[in-house]
Design goal:
two-stranded antiparallel sheet; single chain; five-stranded antiparallel beta sheet; 140 residues; alpha+beta
Length: 140
């Protein structure tokens, strides 16, 4: 599970975010081991417990996002419990799927060597932030 936390004061600096994180989360995670580091120049915190429970926090990149952080909370499981076994395709089904995907890719990437923007569809976000992975729809 994860979410982003934003500060309403847009002038909040990273040092304040880090101090706030430390003050608010460290008391709640007393029995966790903390590893503090950086990822892509951004401060990270990774709290873990021997039972597989973890909390990961990464401070937002201020070049492309508002002040705040992304927090993820999880628990490692002993074995995968939510897996979907692949369907066994017949040779004809596999060939038809491969052919269909090949046609779709050729249609969408015909101009790619010269101009990737031709593959881009309508912009669907008013503003682009670090956590947004698809600012444009695909043309195909």
């Amino acid at each position: 599970m994860g979410w982003d936390w934003y500060y309403s004061n847009k002038s909040t600096n990273d040092a304040h975010v880090v101090a706030d994180l430390t003050a608010q989360l460290s008391p709640l995670l007393k029995n966790f081991k903390l590893v503090r580091g950086t990822s892509g120049g951004r401060t990270t915190f990774f709290w873990t417990r021997p039972n597989g429970t973890w909390v990961y926090v990464k401070v937002h990149d201020r070049k492309s996002d508002d002040p705040g952080f992304r927090i993820r909370v999880g628990h490692y499981l002993a074995k995968n419990v939510h897996t979907v076994k692949p369907i066994a395709f017949t040779a004809a089904q596999r060939d038809a799927l491969t052919s269909g995907l090949t046609s779709f890719i050729k249609l969408g990437s015909g101009d790619a060597p010269n101009d990737f923007t031709a593959m881009r569809g309508q912009k669907h976000l008013k503003s682009f932030k670090a956590g947004d992975f698809e600012a444009y729809d695909g043309a195909v």
